[in-house]
Input
Amino acid sequence: MRLTVDGQEIEVDAEPDMPLLWALRDLAGKTGPKFGCGVAACGACTVVIDGQPVRSCSIPVGDVSGSVTTIEGLVVDGKLHPVQQAWLEEQVAQCGYCQAGQIMSAYALLEEIESPTDEDIDNAMGGNLCRCGTYPRIRAAIKKAANLKLARA
Output
């Protein structure tokens, strides 16, 4: 089965009903997406498919027809994406387990809305749970990322 992951065509030897998460982690070596709940409720496994955040634990790899972006695909020429940079500057992560999924949802949001409001952020990030409760820092990082992204344009 052929997939486009982080801009590269790859071949994975997977049954069509295998969750995309396992194809990414076990077959493609993309360990950024994490297994959290297995039922698409926590967001730790979030990747972006054709601009939309998707819970990779609940989509069969055989149903994927678009380009998949993982957190590993956000770094370009060794340079962090503005969302990743803002995450570091705002010191968002505590335990860090949910952060790849959080970052991917924030990335998708900023691809859609250049300067999101608090309501936009709440709506976009509502499906990503953080056991450490870093939600205020997540919001600050998304706002900073929007500014960093605008400054780079």
Observations:
- The chain has five helices and five strands.
- Helices lie at 20-27, 82-89, 99-112, 118-125, 135-152.
